[in-house]
Amino acid sequence: MTVSTPAPRLLLRGVPSDREMDAFCVQYAPRAPGHPAVRDLLRLLSEVPDDGLEPRLEWVERWIHWMRDRIPAQGLTDADDLALSPSNSRLSLLVRVLEGEGALRASVTRLVAGVCASSRGLKLFAQVGLSAGNGFFSELTDRLARGVLPAPAEPGKLSELLLRLFPVPEDAEWLSALSPLLLARLTALVGDPPPPEPTPSSRVRGDLMDALVLLGVQVTGLGLAEDVRDRIPDMSFRASPFLRLRMAGDAVLARDGAQESLADLLRVVEDCRGVVRTVTQHLEHFGVSVDLVYRLECIQRGLDRMEAIARVLGSPRGEPRWREALELLSDLLRLAHEDRSVRALVRRNARLLARKIIERTGNTGEHYITSTTAEFHHMVHSAAGGGLVAAVAVALKFLLTGLPLAPFFAGLFVALNYAGGFVVMQLLGFTLATKQPSMTASTLAAAVGEDAGLDEGTRRMERLAALVPRITRSQLAAILGNLGCVLPVAVALALGFQFLKGHAYLTAQQAQHVVETLHPWKSATLLHAILTGVMLWASSVAAGWFENFIVYRRLPEALAHHRVLRALFGATGARKVADSLMHHAAGVGGGVTLGVLLAVMPGVGGFFGVPLDVRHVTFSFGALAFAGCALGPSAVMEPGFLAAAAGVLVVGVVNFGVSFTLALGVALRARDVPVSQGLRFLGAVFLRFLRNPLPFLIPPRDEPATGGTQAQVVPLAGPPGH
């Protein structure tokens, strides 16, 4: 608002006199002439430098500091808007002063023109927040060095000026909260310097259009890469929208940002997004690589940046353009701080790695989920086979640890025993219950993360309501099968050995040691069970990684056409070998990894002087069964033995809980689902369990097996022992 009373002539250099200060305050703050915001503003405007980029930038920093003062400039006149935030109230005061003071307005106009003429914005608009293609360790080293070593000043780049003016990430929220209307009025006052000075708007507009063309070239190169094209075989090279993206950017530049050219560009950007979505949907079929997921994310970010720039260029001058510009600038500020953050780099790469390892794990986890009564019974039988193999592995483990072997060979043979048992389970179609949680967690995360829309919460709850009961009763079937078989098999082996040899399989000292180490509170069983849960999760990661490696490298296809295999087994036999590799890849990879971890971890702990051990529920139950046979029937009812049996139950709960929690957390992160949202859905499912627990334990008789994520089943023709 312009005040009609003429203002006194103000000094443009030095500190204003007391008389000038009082007159200025009465002029622009008649209701509060002593307000510090008004006095500080006059001092600031009286010290606008005439030339030199660095002095001008220092003045801009002082202006931002004045704007960010928490004391609002409200109640200065009768027409003040008391609803304005402190920053916007000060911005309104600045606009009123510049509207009424021509000399001050001219000095600020020259300053703005000088800063824009000496600065370049191509890096800010086309590079900030978009990867330069460095590897993880190279980028990590660079960020650590920048955090410790002083960086050279680059005052001619708007990217550096933005961080200089807003040094903390939270400044992005402050920037986005500024009033577009007030900024538009300020731009109208100081944005048109007298000739021959170039206008700041034309300079920034040129940088935006250059960035648009550069981004188009970069995204086109990424989108036309071979591994992206291989995942859209139905689209010819000439029909790729990424080719049109480059031409659309050139058209925007040639036509100086005409509305029609910008509209064409936005349509091409949306077509490119469709290609990215198609490639992303087919990742699990063709395998995932961190490099590919990384480049898909770079393409998506580049397309988002191009769309944001096009919206700024296409908006009418004034408030609409500033609204789009503030959104772009606040996003650039957040990304500029992320580009310097080590934590952001680690978090981003961890997400990419998580995306790689869970895609195949989730696909494998589908085989562990049953739907019908027949599949439930099949899971019990499959798990019973797993219990049988586990009992034999426990017996061999006691035999191997009793041999006088060097530590290396003792660990090697124990690892071969465990890994061999897991591989046998896989090849025979048997199931180990503790491998299920980390596998099914990825499938559950997929159900939580799918779909978006107005009714996404309803659809997700419908999926979870159908999927979670299948997971829980499948897990129950596996537990019953494992533990229900490992006990009688272990007892039969122990009694058979005693019948043949005349003495128990374990000595009294060995049996008592087993009982003592399984005590739930007098031993470190709980900690060891947690460690084993971590190893179970790690083995599921290895399973997903190995299967993904097989798929991504197209090894089954290569084996099916291998000359030697075709010569030995024929075309049909070679195809069977390839299919067998694909079918058993995850199970073998995860089983071998878990076997090695279970055998090596105690040795690693001993090497560092840490008493590490493993507690796997199935093997612990089998070991306790052997110990019970050695101690006799009377000892089985002793409090210590019963406490050890309770310890086995604790081990089972901890094994399942830790592996499931880790897998679910990684899977939710990889699918960009907030952990709080995933926990909220699981909490709702838990309430549903309290109201009707039976479907979570026993499959309904009349429930059909449906397709999709809601009903992943164990194929009866293929073993679920992945």
Comma- or semicolon-separated keywords:
Gliding motility protein; transmembrane helix; mainly alpha; membrane; Site-sp_rcmbase; 31 helices; transmembrane; disordered C terminus
SSE inventory with pairings:
Elements: H1 18-28, H2 36-45, H3 53-67, H4 86-100, H5 102-117, H6 122-126, H7 136-148, H8 158-165, H9 171-176, H10 180-190, H11 200-223, H12 226-229, H13 241-254, H14 259-281, H15 283-286, H16 290-314, H17 319-338, H18 342-365, H19 373-401, H20 407-428, H21 436-449, H22 456-501, H23 508-517, H24 525-552, H25 555-560, H26 563-607, H27 617-631, H28 633-636, H29 639-670, H30 675-691, H31 694-697
Helix pairs in contact: 2-3, 4-10, 7-18, 10-17, 11-13, 11-16, 13-14, 14-16, 16-17, 18-21, 18-24, 18-29, 19-20, 19-22, 19-27, 20-26, 21-22, 21-29, 22-27, 22-30, 23-27, 24-26, 24-29, 27-29
Pfam families: SpecificRecomb
Transmembrane segments: 412-433, 476-500, 526-546, 585-610, 617-636, 642-668
Region (Disordered): 701-722
Walk me through what this model shows:
This protein is an all-alpha fold. The chain has 2 domains: 240 residues, no CATH class; 343 residues, no CATH class. The longest helix has 46 residues. The radius of gyration is 35 Å and the shape is elongated. The N terminus and C terminus are likely disordered. Pfam families: SpecificRecomb. This is Gliding motility protein. Keywords: Membrane, Transmembrane, Transmembrane helix.
